[in-house]
Design goal:
The complex is a heterodimer of chains A (438) and B (420). Chain A is an alpha/beta fold. Chain A folds into three domains: 191 residues, FAD/NAD(P)-binding domain, CATH 3.50.50; 126 residues, FAD/NAD(P)-binding domain (3-Layer(bba) Sandwich), CATH 3.50.50.60; 80 residues, FAD/NAD-linked reductase, C-terminal dimerisation domain (Enolase-like, domain 1), CATH 3.30.390. Chain A has a six-stranded mixed sheet, with helices on one face. In chain A, a hairpin with a 2-residue loop joins strand 29 and strand 30. Chain A contains seven helices and 31 strands. Chain A is globular. In chain B, helix 6 runs antiparallel to helix 8, helix 6 runs parallel beside helix 17 and helix 13 packs across helix 14. Chain B is an alpha+beta fold. The radius of gyration of chain B is 22 Å and the shape is globular. Chain B has one domain: Cytochrome P450 (Cytochrome p450), CATH 1.10.630. Chain B is built from 17 helices and ten strands. The longest helix of chain B has 27 residues. In chain B, 44% of the residues are buried. Classes of the chains: A alpha/beta (438), B alpha+beta (420). Chains A and B meet through strand 28 and helix 7 of A and loops of B.
Amino acid sequence: MSNHSSQGLRKDEHIVIVGASLAGLRAAEALRRRDFAGQITIVGDEKYAPYDRPPLSKHVLTGHLPIEHTPLAMLEDVRATWILGVAATALDVEQRQLSLSNGERLHFDQLLIATGTRARPWPEERGGKLDGVFLIRDRDDSQQLRERLARKPGRVLIAGGGFIGCEVASVCRELDLEVTLVERGPTPLYGALGSSMGSIVARLQQQHGVDLRTRTTVESFEGDAAGRLCRARLSDGSVVEIDVAIVALGALHNTEWLQGSGLAADERGLVCDTYSRVLDAQGQVVEGIFTAGDVARWPQHLCDGDLIAVEHWGNAVDQAENAAGNMLSAETDYRAYKHIPAFWSSQFGINIKAVGLPNRGDEVMVTQGSVERYRFVAAYGRQGRIIAAVSFDQGRWLEAYNTLIEEGATYPPQLAAADQPENMQSQPAGFPAMARHA
Amino acid sequence: MTQKSKIDFKQILDHSHIANPYPLYAQFRETPVALQEDGSYLVSTYNEVVSLLHDPRISSDMRKSDAQKRFMQQAKQKREEMIAQGQQVEEPEEIVPAFIFQDPPNHDRLRRIVTSQLTPERVENMSSHIEQIVKEHLDKHAQGGQIDIVDDLAYPLPVTVICQLLGVPREDEAQFHAWAEPLASVLDPGQVQTEEQQKQIMQAGRQMREYMGQLLQKLKAQPGDNLLSGMMAADDIDGAMSPRELISTAVLLLIAGHETTVNLITNGTLAMLRSPELLERLRQDPELIITYVEELLRYDPPVHFRTRTALADIQIAGTTIPQGATIILVLASGSHDGQRFERSEELIPDRQGNEHLGFGSGLHYCVGAPLARVEAHIALGEISRRLIEPKLALDPPPYRDNAALRGPRHLPVNFKGLRS
């Protein structure tokens, strides 16, 4: 397959990328940057060219960033055929063929699967179709919600206190809207950061006037005769009068279309090896098919090669780069994917950043700064090693923690930092038992 | 393994290398982290310097270093002995270290107050003044002949600018000349050896602080649109600046304004007069000055090294720097690291991806960087544009003693006149 010519590599090869978002675009760019001279086709089920999702739950909702300004910068002329507004519906590994929702079939020599995730929907029978119930995943969702919030509705309810839920709660308070946040766990960000850090976020939210209801879930949304949302029934028996509800209950991996393909795909994601090559249901490598981004489940070196899917921006970029590089390499030159996850969020004026795998931590300890001021760094430990760190408005230190994580430095860390708190104490990180097997 | 090798920091301090320390740095980089005879560690490679500058385990507070603790202990003993002998001994003055010699969180508070006043707008508003000052200084030499770039432009310009920004009356500027140089010499351990020098530094410090205290009193009664008035009035969530903090911050900004930009402008003039081709390019393409100044900050920067203290044992580049050790970060060597910069020993005026260490990196990144850039852009732009047939009268020029804040003492240039 490999042939070098003065015009570039592999002129006669056709690489298809399924998924036209961050990972898909960055992969196409990486292929061209590495001199791939063949054909690239990018299939995406949304009608839009690749756009940036992080602002959808932040600046787009506040109105600071017009939705038209969200497209991703094209860093490279990818010279691709774009098939947008069309979903891949099936994969025939044997025939190297994709079926598309428009009825067409697409042949490929190599394939990159970057179909990502979608927002977990709210069941229709519990009010999911009412006017005023929103999800946030794509630009239409965000645009519609923006328009609704700009009309100064009455109370907004957010179901789910993960990052998206917390960010939207922050936006609502910034827009001076009444907001109720309903979270199943004991604190916001329970699944992402654990209840120890989560309780700090809870205090932050309460100080900003969020009506926080923890250990509570929404039973149902109810509407008026015209189908307009008007109240939510909660698991504690209370009823909240609301105009808008935002469902932020996490993401589902877009793998249904791979049923019957023989690949190791299920609701947890699509399994690949450390070179981003997908595996079949028997655990065998499938030649020429790679995956990257939110949908990929890969062996993470920080936790003994356990398979994890990392639904963060940085992972989409780095893994796309890894997959693209390996697609154009001989097997002997494959590079292993050794990514240390990192993510950020901004809420209530605080920039939260993390590196590593917080939800793999057993314990956590504030190592620098002041919790009271919401300016601090905390390190997570797992079996005596530092596995993650999170910072509140102190992102400047995370590079150093990243190095400690890479080196497998001991936990509790011996930093003796100038701004370490007086009574440093390691505490249970407080994660739900479920989060342990991501 | 730790190596006690030929990498010897004292060589930097030795004046014989001052005109061109870069070959020495190249030797240093063969051992990225090198233990010195006195127990300190010399760090010379880009990645290691950057990583330490971003590490929470290092401190900028000299009081935390073993060497400084020993020194303070000795000084205390000596005082006690003198008292025991019935001698009159002055109580040592309690000095608040300036924020570059402090750590978070107090450093952050002080720096926030400074940056809240040293705003982009304030810097931008200075640019027409800077143009005016440069013009005035150059116009004095309309007939050509000889100009000393240091005394006639590179030194007075930043001094006037920083005084104006801070709110120091221009007529008081001259007093600072005598104070600034001894105070800046504390950054170069090679220079502070005799008791006489120590005394001189202490005295300069005391006088400058006294002056500042009085000036602050005046500004308190009559605030103006300047940094000192702004810092005095500024509030911060963690508390305003105390009078002592105000004084040490003001002294720091004044010294920084006196002793750094002068070298950037002088080094920049030296480099362009050494290369007729470069000078011509700058004349043809005035926009090139932007990347040229960045390249200067990499290639021949005003600040060559800074020291830190390890707060914990730090493993780096196969060595463990023990807690309490002094770490010498040779920024100028990091900026010449061939692993990081292609053709690292060449001056490439349009270099891309130039993340030099000329202003440091991390939380102590030079707070005056935007001001230094504006001054250098304007001064170097005008020197290249206006001087007709400029030639170095002396190459290499004589250098000042300070190896940390390194630059020529004089840079005499012969030229035939000025373009308008």
